[in-house]
Amino acid sequence: MPDLNLWNFAVRCYAQPGVESACLELQSQGADVCVLLCAAWLEARGVACNEERLHALQDVAAPWQRDVVEPLRALRQAWRPLAQRDEALRELRETLKTMELQAERHLLARLQATSDDWALSCEPNTWLNALAPSNHCCADLESLRSAAYRIQRELDDF
User: Fold this and answer.
1) Average model confidence (pLDDT) across the chain
2) Containing H/E element for 51?
3) Separation of alpha carbons 103 and 64, rounded Å
4) 144 CA to centre of own chain
5) Rg for the chain (alpha carbons), in Å?
6) 3-state secondary structure of 47
């Protein structure tokens, strides 16, 4: 069965209808989108979820998000209004956007390395439910889940 690495899965999943807006809404509620994309990837592939593994993902992601991704994102967002009037700042903001994406790619690689040897299971829907930022985001989680399973079915049919 063909398989996508986490980065390629995340890019493909994020491009699915409704997933970008769902991820941004989940992020606004405090979720780590990279961890959620990893969770969707693990869930769709049938990897068993447990507390130890949840903590392992969060332990890898939290410092990288806090120290690398979030400062880049905050600066990029802070520059948005000024960049609309200043070409040089607009170019610098695009550079920050690229750096933020590269930082997320490195985080996804770290999350994949952490989970590479985890066993499969038949427990459905546990990863995303366990990492949901609130009970009010069911539709957003379902958008992400549906996209992940659709991608996995396509790979299985390949």
Assistant:
1) 91
2) helix 51-64
3) 8
4) 10
5) 16
6) strand
Cα 58 to Cα 124: distance, rounded to the nearest angstrom:
20
d(CA 65, CA 69): 5
C-alpha span between 103 and 115 (Å, rounded): 19
Q: How many residues does the chain have?
A: 158
CA–CA distances in Å: residue 62 to residues 35, 58, 119: 9, 6, 24
Neighbours of 75 (CB within 10 A): 14
Q: How many CB atoms lie within 10 A of CB 71?
A: 14
Find tokens 């994102």 and name the residue: 73
φ, ψ of residue 120 to 5 degrees: the values are: -80, 165
Distance CA 155, CA 151 (A): 6
Give the end-to-end CA distance of the chain in Å, rounded to a whole number.
8
pTM over 0.85: yes
Contact (Cβ atoms closer than 8 angstroms) between residue 153 and residue 79:
no
Contact of 13 with 144, CB cutoff 8 Å: yes
The residues, any chain, with a CB within 8 Å of residue 21's CB and separated by 6 or more, are 140, 143
Reported as a single tens digit per residue, the pLDDT across 29-64 is 989 999 999 999 999 999 999 999 999 999 999 999
